[in-house]
Amino acid sequence: MRIEPLANFPIERDLVVDLSHFIESLEAIKPYIIGNEAPPLDGKPHPSAELAKSRTKQTPAQLEKYRTFSMCINCGLCYAACPQFGLNPEFLGPAAITMAHRYNLDNRDRGKVQRMPLLNGKNGVWSCTFVGYCSEVCPKHVDPASAINQGKVESAKDYVISMLNQKAKGRKCQ
Question: Where would you find the membrane-spanning parts of this chain (predicted)?
């Protein structure tokens, strides 16, 4: 058996590596449910309170859409295996993109609009060259490569929709 530090991370000492970029990438994509508006301070139910309550419920089918991606334990093995992260340390990386995709698929989350600029950006999903090593080494079989490819589809849809919205706004202004 051979024990060595995780590849693609700066070595601090012995087996200890600097995970600061890994943590920063995870924090940047907001790996938590961004919910509906906060409850009113006066204690009176807001007109959309019933709607907000219904958005917290989830069917087994809704859970199944993202369940596999939620199994990530943030071990960093996907980053160590990723040749793109080795070449471009600014790449968001497999785990961060997978977590973003997991929350974007969650019916209770309203944060997709906040995450898409990062996923669409220079170091987002399009930086992945799809080697697939990230999925091969995942101890929880999360399949980050699949999340990244699905993220590319969502990114393309997001781009087309934004272009159509800009075109529609241009017509209204004329």
Answer: none
